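Design job #97: recover the sequence.
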């Protein structure tokens, strides 16, 4: 009987030791994640995938944004990548440290000069538009240009971003326009009037697509449009050679974009079978010049 009693006591003691961690040992702790929004409007928010987690856990932050809005995230003891969420539904992630984390989500409107989602510089907001004719008023036909409707409602792409100055290495490369002596299927831009400039905004992407096809048929390589089309900065593959109107918008925000080479830049707009439009980007001096001359190139994209 005594032996049975000792056996039972021993078994209970073993269960206690196995089931109850040693208080001198530090158990795996769970730390809290707090997200504080600043200047959020309406239903905007940033939410964490969990409210608490152990060290080493991957945490996802998801933003819900209003139109034309961005959010910058910062956190104690945490480096977030990316630090800027620019479109609704984008996320940022971090690894949970061995401490509570306080995340601040600062909401604001996207501005000219901001870094775009593909790492370029934003230089045009289609909702605001641009005063092409210089009458100090942005008319209805000087905005809502990117979707080709000009109906006052931005239903497609809203912004243009220019590739960073080091997109091709050190500086913007030189290239020929190509297709010398060939009358492409592009619609010729007869002059640089305000109407033609504003009307060509939104055409750079389709111009570039046309040029890529015709350059391939002509077995030409390393031309201006091809360099832009081949760029994949920010893991995006929708970069293109800007139209003349889009180059005008780049010129107007040249300090925000930065890194331009002194001299002439190609546009994707064509004047005739021999002459595309090119621009001295430092002074907005227009050039009609042969397609087989080397000028500088800077890609842009719409989003």
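Job complete. Output follows.
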């Amino acid at each position: 009987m005594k032996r049975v009693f000792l056996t039972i006591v021993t078994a209970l003691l073993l269960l206690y030791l196995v089931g109850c961690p040693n208080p001198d040992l530090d158990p795996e702790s769970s730390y809290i994640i707090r997200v504080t929004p600043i200047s959020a409007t309406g239903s905007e928010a940033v939410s964490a995938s969990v409210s608490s987690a152990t060290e080493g856990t991957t945490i996802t932050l998801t933003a819900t944004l209003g139109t034309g809005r961005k959010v910058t995230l910062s956190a104690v003891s945490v480096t977030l990548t990316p630090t800027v969420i620019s479109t609704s539904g984008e996320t940022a992630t971090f690894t949970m440290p061995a401490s509570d984390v306080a995340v601040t989500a600062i909401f604001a409107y996207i501005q000219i000069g901001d870094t775009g989602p593909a790492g370029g510089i934003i230089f045009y907001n289609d909702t605001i538009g641009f005063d092409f004719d210089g009458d100090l008023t942005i008319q209805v036909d000087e905005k809502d240009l990117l979707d080709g409707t000009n109906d006052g409602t931005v239903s497609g792409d809203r912004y243009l971003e220019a590739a960073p100055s080091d997109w091709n290495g050190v500086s913007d490369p030189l290239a020929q326009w190509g297709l010398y002596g060939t009358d492409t299927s592009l619609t010729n831009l007869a002059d640089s009037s305000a109407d033609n400039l504003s009307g060509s905004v939104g055409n750079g992407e389709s111009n570039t697509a046309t040029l890529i096809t015709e350059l391939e048929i002509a077995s030409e390589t390393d031309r201006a449009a091809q360099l832009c089309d081949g760029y994949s900065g920010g893991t995006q593959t929708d970069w293109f050679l800007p139209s003349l109107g889009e180059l005008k918008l780049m010129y107007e925000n040249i300090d925000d974009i930065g890194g331009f080479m002194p001299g002439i830049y190609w546009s994707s707009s064509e004047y005739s079978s021999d002459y595309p439009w090119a621009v001295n980007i430092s002074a907005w001096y227009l050039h009609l010049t042969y397609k087989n001359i080397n000028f500088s190139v800077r890609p842009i994209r719409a989003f």
